[in-house]
């Protein structure tokens, strides 16, 4: 039995392009983001994947990425489950601010801690630990049972909601959390063992996005 879980961070959003903290704000994809999502779908289809279930967040950039991937795979009729548990981390007072301006105001070290550490909360927002506290129970209750039943499952979400999940799947902890980065539109393919641990992890870079 194959137990396949594929994670995809949404394609580039308008606020990614402008270097703004986004969080629970709801900008759309850029043209590049649309292209990234379509390329991910084509790459997955070329490698023989065909999803039985799909999950995404309540934010449009993830929802559109999910829809574009499924469209490229000929799976537009597949029901998609949406839940705020998969939303990006809430950046609180930083939402809408330029990241370079934030570094000038609070310092490089503080902003780096807010962005990359496990338990540092930005003002009025969530830490990665807080994000994990909503992502992981949802994964265990709603997503994992589908995978363990032999389904191929897509989760199209966000950099930090997927970091929280990948942190557990990959066994990343402590200082290594800061090094864990999920790139836009690049599928991460996990095959799980019967005990729910990871048998293999593959990064699928679509041909049109590969570096020459």
From TrEMBL:
Pfam families: His_Phos_1. The keyword Isomerase applies. It catalyses: (2R)-2-phosphoglycerate = (2R)-3-phosphoglycerate. InterPro entries: His_Pase_superF_clade-1, His_PPase_superfam, PG/BPGM_mutase_AS, Phosphogly_mut1. Its EC number is 5.4.2.11. The record marks 158 as: Transition state stabilizer. GO terms for molecular function: phosphoglycerate mutase activity. Substrate binds at residues 9-16, 22-23, 61, 88-91, 99, 115-116, 159-160. Transmembrane segments: none annotated. The keyword Isomerase applies. It comes from the Bacteria. SUPFAM superfamilies: Phosphoglycerate mutase-like (SSF53254). Pathway: Carbohydrate degradation; glycolysis; pyruvate from D-glyceraldehyde 3-phosphate: step 3/5. The active site is at 10 (tele-phosphohistidine intermediate), 88 (proton donor/acceptor). It is an enzyme of class 5 (isomerase). Keywords: Gluconeogenesis, Glycolysis, Isomerase. Homodimer. Catalyzes the interconversion of 2-phosphoglycerate and 3-phosphoglycerate. Belongs to the phosphoglycerate mutase family. BPG-dependent PGAM subfamily. This is 2,3-bisphosphoglycerate-dependent phosphoglycerate mutase. It comes from Methylobacterium longum. The lineage of its organism: Bacteria, Pseudomonadati, Pseudomonadota, Alphaproteobacteria, Hyphomicrobiales. The gene is gpmA.
